[in-house]
Amino acid sequence: MLAVRDALGIRDPLGIPAVVAQPSLVVESTVHGAAGVDAEWLRWWERALAASKQDESAVPLSPGGALGRIVEDNRDAIRLWSAERKRDVANASRPVRGALRMRDAVREYERTTGARLGGFRLKVTALPITGALFLPIGGNRILISAELLRHREEYIRRVIAYVAAEGI
Question: 45 with 67: CB under 8 angstroms?
Answer without folding.
Answer: no
